[in-house]
Amino acid sequence: MTVLYEDRLQAGELLATEVAIGLEGVELPIRVYALPRGGIPVAFPIAQRLHCPLEVLAAKKIALPNNPELALGAITPDGTTAWAKSSFSKRKNSQELEQAREEAYQSAIALQEQFNPHCLQLAVENTIVIIVDDGIATGMTMMTAIKALRKQEPAQIWVAAPVAPPEMKEKIEQNSDRAIILETPDPFFNVGRFYKKFSQVSTEEAITYLD
Q: Dihedral of CA 5/6/8/10: which sign?
């Protein structure tokens, strides 16, 4: 196992340097969005480096109860949904799928409501939006976040993450204006294996980066 980062904060500091370099000469306003909860400590150094507020966008994985690890899609609190087409096309029980979507939707709303009081919720129209997570595996939550924020008509959407599989970086590049992914190890397996410390981020801890 190859450890690439000490923890999420250190990964965020490294990412902040690359993002700042990429934004040299850019005059548009910047918005930094973290995918909670793990993306918040990573996004914190980026927002600090860019002197802009840190926003949060919840995106929850849609999965069936008998296979909770298989992401069939993801959904954000405004109802924006992205499906993993290869999995979705094979599902014949639409009622079961709709129930899973509704549960994920309610979960996304509840998660977002925990963070909204701690965010400015600024408009993103004609800005550069940078969406940050602690890593990208299946890409479902990130793709849904891109789709949701695109509706708000930013000038550009960037994606920043410390680690992702090579094929996922290509997919993110195709669906965003710029992808800053520090490492693309192969084989990948999961995000946590590339961190020395990768404990779950509590809501209380996450909020400390927002206040």
A: negative
